[in-house]
Structures are given as structure tokens and as C-alpha cells.
Amino acid sequence: MAIVHHGFAALVAASRALGVIRFDIQNAEKLRHLGRAIVIANHPSYMDVMVLLSLMPRACCIVTSRHWRNPLFAGIVRAAGYLRNDGGPSLVGASEAALADAVPLIVFPEGTRSPSRGQLGKFSRGFAHIALAHDCPILPVLIDCDPPAYTKQHRWHSLPPSTPTLRVRVLEDDLSEHVAAAPVRFAPANEDVLAPLAARRLTALAEHFFIDQISQHGFTRT
Predict the structure, then answer these.
(1) Interval 144-193: pLDDT, tens
(2) Closest Cα partner for 162 from 149, 143, 144, 180?
(3) What residues contact 149, with CB distance under 8 A and at least 6 apart?
(4) Where are the beta strands (DSSP E) in the chain?
(5) Residue 41 φ/ψ, nearest 5 degrees
(6) What is the rounded distance in angstroms from the CA atom of residue 207 to the CA atom of residue 108?
């Protein structure tokens, strides 16, 4: 983890020095000293993972299973001890050791880059199952690239006419508290039914929260 952190920190510094991209980061200290928690972020560009890991000396990424089959990424994610997102109970169990050691998890609930600026892909429930099973806080991070670059619609070498700025906003909200505050319409007695419903509700709340915050912070196409 430390090698990946320092490597990405060097890449961010080099990108800034070469004028390839600007960085506008707020509340970075909250990430640097984060312990047992889940960081969830939207995913507009290639640069998102690199920037978050450059800010977090100890962090474990939950990585989509296709990266474990990718010859370019497989060795890196395995060596760093990242978790494979197979979903379900296996992911919940695999995350226990990292959280027990106060290592924060990084999750991009969309699973891939956002469809376009200011738009989100559908959130998957993996982070919600982990948060509910291990009773840990969820820290939301908003990311935007203006003008859009390194997105799903751009090739990695295609740059806009002006230097893009990657904006990162680490928010104060603990999204897990939103579930406790939300009204319960019904409460099934069967725990096997209740847990998936709670995860579904937390995922929906997180997705709506991000949509609202992206709009409030101006992270939309104009």
C-alpha cells in the first residue's frame, strides 16, 4: 500500500509540475488521517483512483473483477492487497481484516467511469453491505474534471484545449447516519430479508445524496 501511495503521489506531483492537469482539493487532511471507514466517490475520470490513493497513506481499494484479469493491472492490485469485488458475502468477509486494522476502504459504487459529466451510473450495493455488516462510517467524496478529460467519452491521450482541473471535495457527512435518520416503512422479522433491504435503502440514499451534492457544487455540464 505504501509503495502505491508514494508512486501515485509522485505521478500527481509530476502531472502538476508539467501542467498536464491542475488539482483543486478541499479537506484533504480528512483523508490523510482516516482510519476505519469506507470512502465512496463518483468516478468521472481515469485520474480519480490515482488522486485518492496519493492522498491516503494507508488505503485498500475494492477493485472490479475485470482488473484482476487485466495483464496491466492484475499484478499491481494483487501486490497491493486490494480486494476483488465479487459482491455478496465474500466481499463483506474479505473487507473485515482491513477494517479491523483501521485501514480505510475506497469504493467507486458506479463500478466504472461515470457516463458523462454531472451524471452518475447506477450504484452497486457492495459498500452498503460492508458498512452495515461492520458498522463503519461512510465518507463521501465528490470528484469533477473541468473541462472534461480522461473520461469515458475521451481517449486517454485526448486533452481539451485548456488545461483541465480535477476538483476533489471531501465532505463531512457520514452517510451511514442517513439510514438511521430515514423513516422505516416496515421492518421484516426475518434478518435474511432485513439486511438486503437495509443495503438497498443505503445505496439509494447514497446515490440521491451524490446527485444532489453534484448539483449543489456545480459539478454539472454547463
Answers:
(1) 999 888 877 766 566 678 899 999 999 988 887 765 555 444 344 445 55
(2) 149
(3) 21, 45, 158, 159, 160, 164
(4) 22-26, 38-41, 60-64, 83-85, 105-107, 138-146, 165-170
(5) -140, 150
(6) 11
